[in-house]
């Protein structure tokens, strides 16, 4: 019941109908219904006239009617009001198990009925794993249903004079998470326009050889100049883009512009007569992009159109791509066979198993900045970074430390044998023209 309860606390959207106190009569009817349950069986049979549940009782299951008819009603005796008559294929009792509220109406078999029982736990797990937006929509629609039942009830007694469902208090509106979800919906709508209206741009952060501090490449990092919101960082929108398919056109845009800029970097290097054939641009690739069946073809097409070679591009992927290990290994192998290097980004933060390192060849480990930032203040962080560098060395892989902010972090990493550095100590992410200018003075 944990999950259903959490939905209830998210959106405490109980309509005004459900009485808080369960009457003894209601209790005993519920008991009669329960006795007929065979715990190991998810089929329930009800005889004609049998009460299935009563208004106000707690809800731990819903029913799908296989055969027969069920009346849903509020009130009791002569004052009862029929809300619905349901038949084969219909579900009832689902509202209470979705938001863990008491039953807002009673259910009675009109003739012999055969029903499939759906337990609260079965539903709760599915709801919990759905997106907050879906949960919000379910919750709003429940609220409306409950409010409507309550409203119908008041019609039989005009003296009560409750407001109509449209104006009943929607307690979830004040909930902080509700506000956050609305924000996300607006952000997603604005983001839809971002690619279309050319509001995205890339910044470039240099990567340095830690032994001689020469620039060896740049990582492209996405930014969004939103007309309404100003400059928005990827932490605020990449996750939402990944939840939807928006990351796919966005990912194509990133590939296009990173390759175009790589070509311009290369032209600059050629002009400087610096034959740096190892120069590269690192591009962050999200899991959804990588999982596209035609990702590799798109990548090849893009590099060919821009006249850049595969070995000048590093694909930065996180360990999350190994959640489907077989598929990830296939895609990585294909990219590597064509000459693209694959770096594991945020190493040490994403996945609990290192098995994939044995089964899949990659080219570089990028140590997450959370470790680097504690390097000089935490012995444990130091041990972990040292161990990652050792593992990488033994596997014949170079290591990149990201998030280097202080000279002492850099010295510690140099002493540990880390190969490549990136961080505010060297440079913040820069607009393309400033990154290009930085290349003209490669020695710091
Ligand atoms: P990331 O791939 O781990 O990128 C490194 C992040 O660390 C960047 O944040 C960078 O600005 C920041 N950083 C670099 N040096 C330092 C430092 O010394 N100190 C601190 N505190 N931070 C530092 P940014 O640009 O905000 O990007 C955040 C994340 O957004 C990225 O983490 C990446 O996961 C995602 N992202 C950025 N650009 C793209 C993109 O083009 N595609 C995809 N799929 N994800 C992207
Ligand atoms: Ca990265
Ligand atoms: Ca990273």
Name some characteristics of this structure.
18 strands, TIM Barrel, binds calcium ion, elongated, 8-stranded mixed barrel, Jelly Rolls, alpha/beta, single chain, disordered N terminus, 4-stranded antiparallel sheet, binds ligand C2E
Characterization of the model:
- The protein is an alpha/beta fold and 444 residues long.
- It has two domains: 2-130, Jelly Rolls (Sandwich), CATH 2.60.120.10; 197-438, TIM Barrel.
- Helices cover 43% and strands 21% of the residues.
- It has 16 helices and 18 strands.
- It has helices at 2-10, 24-35, 94-99, 120-128, 132-155, 176-196, 234-243, 247-271, 287-290, 295-306, 325-337, 355-359, 369-373, 379-394, 407-416, 432-439, and strands at residues 43-46, 51-53, 61-67, 70-74, 81-86, 91-92, 106-109, 113-119, 200-209, 215-226, 230-232, 280-284, 313-318, 341-347, 364-367, 399-402, 420-422, 430-431.
- The strands form three sheets. Strands 9-10-12-13-14-15-16-17 form an eight-stranded mixed β-barrel, surrounded by five helices. The chain has a four-stranded antiparallel sheet with strand order 1-8-3-6.
- Strand 13, helix 11 (325-337) and strand 14 form a beta-alpha-beta unit.
- It is elongated, with a radius of gyration of 30 Å.
- Residues 1-38 have low confidence and may be disordered.
- Ligand C2E is lined by residues 205, 220-222, 233-235, 238, 254, 284, 286, 316, 345-346, 369, 402-405, 422-424, 429.
Strand and helix map with partners:
Blueprint: H1 2-10, H2 24-35, E1 43-46, E2 51-53, E3 61-67, E4 70-74, E5 81-86, E6 91-92, H3 94-99, E7 106-109, E8 113-119, H4 120-128, H5 132-155, H6 176-196, E9 200-209, E10 215-226, E11 230-232, H7 234-243, H8 247-271, E12 280-284, H9 287-290, H10 295-306, E13 313-318, H11 325-337, E14 341-347, H12 355-359, E15 364-367, H13 369-373, H14 379-394, E16 399-402, H15 407-416, E17 420-422, E18 430-431, H16 432-439
The structure holds ligand C2E and calcium ion (2 copies).
